[in-house]
Amino acid sequence: MKQAMVTGLREASVIEVPEPVPKENWVKVKVLAAPLNTDAGDGGEGNGLGGQNHSGAGEVVEVAQPCRVRPGDRVVVQPGLACGRCEWCLSGHFIHCPNGVDFEAFTGSASGGVALAHYLLKPDWLLLPIPEDIPYELAVLAVGGVGPSFAACEAMAIGAFETVLVIGLGPVGLGGVVNAVFRGARVVAVESNPYRARLAQELGAEMVWNPAERECLEAIREMTEGRGVDACLECSGTPEGQSLCGEAARIQGQIAFVCRSISPSILLAISRDLRRKGLRLHGIWHYPIPAFPRVLQVIRDSPVIGKMITHLFSLDEIPKALETQAGGQCGQILVRPWD
Question: What tens digit of pLDDT does each residue of 151-202 get?
């Protein structure tokens, strides 16, 4: 089968590897759509594919034993290699599992450990069903831009009475706009990329400020009559974005840190922002399994969700996909390995 292999910074090729073989309750899935995450090809974990490992959407094609899924099932493949036995896995918060499975040691091969491939292997309990009325290309957003920001909106109980600030409009930030608008919130954003700023407004953001063109904090205070925003989704991973959250949030407001940070520490003023304002902070990675039906509800019912997807690439076009993503003129990029 074909599989993507990173060869350098933002560089990749396609190689031939053996097809994976299901084992115990680990199931073979034909990958029909995978989101290209912003850290793919940046030299991160797992073959340099970063968060691209292990998540996508596809069809179950082979099982080793009777289990929770059957061949022909349409499934969203949840991320990570959780153990399935610890308290975090059993409660559905598998993303925080501290006992990750050694994929190669368990399966006896490296094949099937990456979603940018024809097939992958996954435990049956991390394969969640896709209703027939939702196409793979939309369902996969549950492990793409929509999923992490959904968890942030849940944690902060975003609703119609809130004003929400989204900082950074990569796929996760754009998903934050979709999720907050779906809940009826007033949404504003900060982004220096004009393409993504326009896309966010198409998704429902009322206003997007470019920090290179205007003092964003001043603009936020003007529009909120000096009160500040109720909630912030920090999706830029930058110290500047973190600092702006602390200053822009209202007294007893909330901040969710959703993306991987480029800095090892959070740039917030402890006394000014946390102690005196009483801010509440949330570290967000992914939603728990029980929330999956509600994630699908956003995907099914949002009238703008399809606009998030701006590019589709085949597996053979991985170099072009990484180049497009690095250029920033895109929203959520999807890879369809069998095209």
Answer: 999 999 999 999 999 999 999 999 999 999 999 999 999 999 999 999 999 9
Rounded to the nearest 5 degrees, what angle is found at the Cα of 162, between the Cα atoms of 157 and 163?
A: 125
Residue 41 has pLDDT above 70, yes or no: no
Amino acid at the residue 78:
Q
Task: State whether 162 and 137 are in the same domain.
Answer: no
- CATH number, domain with residue 70: 3.90.180.10
Same structural domain, 54 and 161: no
Element spanning 240, H or E: helix 239-248
Each residue's pLDDT tens digit, 299-315 = 999 999 999 999 999 99
CATH of the domain at 159: 3.40.50.720
Domain span at 249: 146-283
Chain centre to alpha carbon of residue 244: 22
Same domain, 95 and 223: no
Residue 234 phi, psi (nearest 5): -90, 105
Which of 314, 31, 38 has its CA nearest to residue 174?
38
Cβ–Cβ < 8 Å for 247, 167 = no
Q: Give residue-wise pLDDT tens across range 188-241.
A: 999 999 999 999 999 999 999 999 888 999 999 999 999 999 999 999 999 999
* 63 shares its domain with 165: no
User: For residue 288, is it within any domain?
Assistant: no
Total structural domains in the chain?
2
297 is a domain residue? no
**Cα 223 to Cα 188: distance, rounded to the nearest angstrom:** 10
Averaged confidence pLDDT in the chain: 92
Establish if 295 belongs to a structural domain: no
Q: Which pLDDT band, with edges at 50, 70 and 90, does 40 fall under? A: low
Instruction: Decide: 266 and 232 in contact? Cβ < 8 Å.
Output: no
pTM over 0.90: yes
Are 20 and 120 part of one and the same domain? yes
Count of CB atoms situated within 10 Å of the CB of 15: 12
Which residue from 173, 176, 169, 174 is spatially nearest to 154, judged by alpha carbons?
176
